[in-house]
Amino acid sequence: MPRTSLHDVGVRRQLVALCAAVLVATGLSACGHQDPPWTDLAWHAVSLPVPQGDRAMVRGATWCDDRWVVVGALADARAHTRPAVWVSSDGKQWRTLALHPGDDYYAARAILTSVGCSRGRLAVLGAKSGGAHGNPRTATWRERRDGSLAAVPAAFELYGGPSAVAVSRLGGGPAGYLIVGTRASGAAVWTSRTGRSFRLLEGVGGLASTPQLRTQALDTVPWQGAWTVVGVSTDHSGRLTATAWSGSGDGPWTPTRLPGGSTITTAERLVATSAGPVTVGLVDNGFGVWADRDGRWTQASTFGAADPARTSAAYVSGVAWTGSLLAATYSDGVRFRLAIGPTRGLDVVPLPREVTVRGDHAVTVATHLDDTLLLTDDGEQGLVWLTRLPH
Asked: What residues make up the domain containing 66?
């Protein structure tokens, strides 16, 4: 073995020192490697306007008709809630929209959870638990010509009743709105062209449960004149498999079980990109990204991990697309996290505020081009955070 001279040692030390200096000066995490620019973001917090003594509960956001829209609720000191919607053209100055619940007791106390945009018009989904069994009393809201929102009267069994399981998300697109959820018969959808009324389609072939699989629908986006829906299928052993469906409201629906994972996969949140839909969910003890390219779903990447000490469920709470980057918020079972990057690989980045996982806490994300809106609710204060994601 050749001997190492003092000169060689000196040269190596100089190289190490030079590398360290470069790291300090440029922020390189290793010689020859630079951290992606989205791992160090400057967030700007914005408080939403609320009446004295109330706090904002923020749950969902979208961009519609040249403005940001945030939905949620107001809560007073006794935890009594009432629905709320805020809008802003720049994400900095916000105003509230007038809401008209009519004579619906539960709509007047609802927490609004998701919002869709179709041809510049809003539709909103919300619920309030109550009644003899404490079940969610679900209602939708439509935008009126004056810009206010009105609760849509509906029969109790449209969303509830003996066949009810869950009403999950509302999405908007060029042809109208679609709500996805689960009935006793399995995955189901509610359709509306205008938001004035919704029609329930349950037990639909390809979408509903089969003797081999029980299905649940969790999110939806429009794509190429139809709808893409994602969720899970559960077999007789209890194994959950991420599943996507494509079709129209009336069907037929074509199911696809997504690849990857050895113990569990779920498809929980969905976003449309220029190349096709992308969904995010659980993959074993971490999280995964799947992309639909020309009707074929492939697993694009994995990221993050569930906390081994988790006391709550691990799940994906939001996903958004800037045109080049994916942003996903998720629960690791202890606290909420944020991951950003191209679909082929996301980096877990710091949230501007730590939010633990509890029933009344929430974190989600929305984008318009490079502008990114993060919602955080730690049970004490609901905030909007703004940043611009670099390419």
From this structure: 37-388
> Given CA atoms 386, 52, 110, 151 in this order, what sign does their dihedral have?
negative
| Same domain as 317, residue 225 | yes
pLDDT digits (tens, 9 = 90+) for 17-28: 443 443 333 344
| Burial environment of residue 127 by CB neighbours within 10 A (0 to 12, 13 to 18, 19 or more) | buried
CATH code at position 309: 2.130.10.10
| 220 phi and psi angles, rounded to 5 deg | -155, 150
Tally of domains within the chain: 2
- Say whether both 309 and 358 belong to one domain: yes
DSSP alpha helix (H) spans, the chain: 6-26, 156-159
> pLDDT, tens digit, for every residue of 309-334?
999 999 999 999 999 999 999 999 99
**Contact assessment for residue 281 and residue 265, using Cβ atoms and an 8 Å cutoff:** yes
Per 3-state DSSP, what percentage of the chain is helix, strand, and coil (rounded to 5)?
A: 10, 50, 40
Amino acid at 293: R
**CA gap 266, 279 in Å, rounded:** 9
Per the confidence metrics, is the pTM higher than 0.85?
yes
